[in-house]
């Protein structure tokens, strides 16, 4: 009498693929490229700021921008991994 096809948890687990599941795969690919670019650019900005910028205020602003870019890139990568196909 227990039909596994009518069980709602079975249907829910098979349809829950992540937050970006409704976006086409090529668009998810471009989002991953943008997030990789944000991560790399943030590393370059932080390294350049530590090496060449001596002004404390300018250094703080550049590092803040770089860390925000790092956080956005990491968040997008988590979304990409959560949307990974089964």
Task: Provide a short characterization of the protein structure.
With 86 residues, the chain is mainly alpha-helical. The protein is built from three helices and no strands.
The helix/strand order is HHH
- Pick out the low-confidence regions: none
- How many β-strand runs? 0
Average predicted local confidence, pLDDT:
85
**Helix- and strand-based class?**
mainly alpha
Strand content: under 5%
- Termini separation comes to 29 Å
- In the residues, how many domains can be counted? 1
**How many H/I helical runs?**
3
| Helix percentage range | over 70%
- Cα-atom Rg, whole angstroms? 20 Å
Major beta sheet, specifics? none
Break the fold down into its secondary structure elements and pairings:
Layout lengths: L7 H8 L9 H28 L3 H27 L4
How is this structure best described in words?
With 86 residues, the protein is mainly alpha-helical. The chain has one domain (8-82). It is built from three helices and no strands. The chain is elongated and about 70 Å long. The model has no long low-confidence stretch (mean pLDDT 85).
